């Protein structure tokens, strides 16, 4: 998803026209909507051919997820046509699942195959 801000900037700078930028962003949002999630979080590695999650790397990265959410907020603010879809993906993340209330911090990630948390 880190490609979205550059696409929006490219449109604003005139390198992409609005239709091209919206088309590329729409494809990205559509792909994200197909990925399997764990409490709204996508695994780190997914197939772009069939949207299946990797069987060999079943981790969810909290940092990567936070970056994705930042990009989704950018899309929701800068692309009216995609705003509702980007917000729906953003709000699907259930951050309480990766929050350590004793330490008052987010966990580093989780292995979705075993539900073991990375506390760093």
Describe the protein's architecture and organization.
This protein is an alpha+beta fold and 120 residues long. 43% of the residues lie in helices and 14% in strands. The chain contains four helices and seven strands. The chain has helices spanning 4-12, 18-34, 62-78, 83-91; strands spanning 37-38, 41-42, 59-61, 99-100, 105-106, 109-111, 116-118. The strands form three sheets. The protein has a three-stranded antiparallel β-sheet. Strand 1 (37-38) and strand 2 (41-42) form a beta hairpin. Helix 1 (4-12) runs antiparallel to helix 2. The two termini are 23 Å apart.
What is the topology?
Blueprint: H1 4-12, H2 18-34, E1 37-38, E2 41-42, E3 59-61, H3 62-78, H4 83-91, E4 99-100, E5 105-106, E6 109-111, E7 116-118
Helix pairs in contact: 1-2, 3-4
Keywords:
3-stranded antiparallel β-sheet, two-stranded antiparallel sheet, globular, single chain, alpha+beta, 120 residues, 14% strand
Give a quick account of the main beta sheet: strands, pairing sense, barrel closure: 3 strands, antiparallel
Rounded mean pLDDT is 88
Would you identify the regions where 5 or more consecutive residues have pLDDT less than 50?
none
Distance between the termini: 23 Å
Task: State the oligomer.
Answer: single chain
Question: Helix proportion of residues, in percent?
Answer: 40-55%
**DSSP summary, beta strand count:** 7
Class from secondary-structure proportions: alpha+beta
Order of helices and strands: HHEEEHHEEEE
How much strand content do the residues show? 5-15%
Biggest sheet strand order reads 3-6-7
Principal-axes shape call: globular
Radius of gyration: 15 Å
């Amino acid at each position: 998803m880190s490609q979205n801000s550059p696409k929006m900037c490219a449109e604003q700078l005139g390198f992409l026209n609005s239709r091209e930028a919206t088309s590329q962003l729409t494809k990205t949002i559509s792909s994200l909507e197909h990925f399997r999630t764990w409490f709204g979080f996508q695994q780190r590695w997914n197939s772009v051919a069939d949207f299946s999650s990797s069987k060999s790397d079943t981790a969810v990265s909290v940092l990567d997820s936070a970056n994705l959410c930042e990009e989704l907020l950018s899309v929701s603010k800068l692309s009216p046509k995609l705003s509702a879809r980007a917000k729906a993906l953003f709000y699907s993340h259930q951050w309480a699942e990766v929050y350590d209330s004793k330490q008052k911090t987010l966990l580093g990630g989780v292995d979705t195959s075993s539900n073991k948390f990375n506390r760093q």
